[in-house]
């Protein structure tokens, strides 16, 4: 019994445009981010989707609601899909961080990969044999794919806003 995971990155946010490290802040979709989600919703209209899961951060939930609405599906949220916790780098201008030493309060790569593995287990157990659309974030989605494919994070290509990648679990 195959479980299909349609892994999506949320739509563009105000902080994406401003190059601000969002981390686990809520975030707000831009008009373009809403348009991206609506375009994805329309592209997926003919696809069978049994469930919609999202990070519990606003930018992912808002994207997921747009995708779920015409199907009448509830959006189930989980903190397992939250973006990496960037600690004291959160809220800072990304280009200004280059070369700075990493503070101790950033979620470690090992912690992130373990959380990604727990997310995959959660989907396999709760949605066995189903097709699940899951809306997460750039770095956590990279970690999920790295765990799934047994690769290093650096080997996983960056996801664009509202991009979908299909994983067979």
Oligomeric organization of the protein chains: single chain
Query: What ranges have pLDDT less than 50 throughout 5 or more consecutive residues?
Result: none
Q: Indicate the proportion of strand residues.
A: 15-25%
Derived structural class: alpha/beta
Series of H and E elements: EHHEHEHEHE
- Radius of gyration, in angstroms, nearest whole number: 15 Å
Distance between the termini: 9 Å
The largest β sheet comes out as: 5 strands, mixed
Tally of extended strands? Answer: 5
Q: If strands are numbered along the chain, what order do they take across the biggest sheet?
A: 3-2-4-1-5
In helices, the fraction of residues equals 25-40%
The gross shape turns out to be globular
Work out the helix count: 5
Overall pLDDT, averaged?
97
Describe the overall structure.
- This protein is α/β, with parallel strands linked by helices and 169 residues long.
- It contains 5 helices and 5 strands.
- Strands 3-2-4-1-5 form a 5-stranded mixed β-sheet, with helices on both faces.
- Helix 2 runs parallel beside helix 3 and helix 4 packs across helix 5.
- The protein is globular and about 45 Å long.
- It starts with a strand and ends with a strand.
- The mean pLDDT is 97.
Topology:
Elements: E1 4-9, H1 14-18, H2 31-43, E2 51-55, H3 58-68, E3 75-78, H4 109-126, E4 131-136, H5 138-149, E5 164-168
Parallel strand pairs: 1-4, 2-3, 2-4
Antiparallel strand pairs: 1-5
């Amino acid at each position: 019994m195959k479980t299909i995971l349609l892994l999506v990155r949320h739509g563009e946010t105000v902080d994406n445009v401003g190059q601000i490290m969002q981390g686990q802040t809520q975030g707000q979709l831009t008009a373009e981010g809403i348009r991206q989600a609506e375009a994805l919703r329309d592209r997926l209209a003919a696809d069978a989707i049994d469930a919609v899961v999202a990070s519990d951060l606003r930018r992912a939930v808002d994207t997921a609601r747009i995708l779920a609405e015409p199907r009448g599906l509830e959006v189930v949220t989980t903190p397992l899909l939250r973006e990496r916790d960037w600690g004291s780098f959160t809220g800072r201008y990304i280009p200004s961080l280059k070369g700075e030493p990493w503070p101790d309060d950033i979620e470690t790569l090992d912690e992130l990969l373990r959380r990604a593995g727990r997310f995959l287990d959660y989907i396999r157990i709760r949605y066995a044999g189903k097709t699940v659309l899951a809306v997460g974030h750039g770095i956590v989605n990279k970690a999920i794919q790295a765990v799934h494919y047994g690769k290093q994070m650096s080997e996983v290509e960056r996801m664009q806003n509202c991009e979908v990648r299909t994983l067979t679990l």
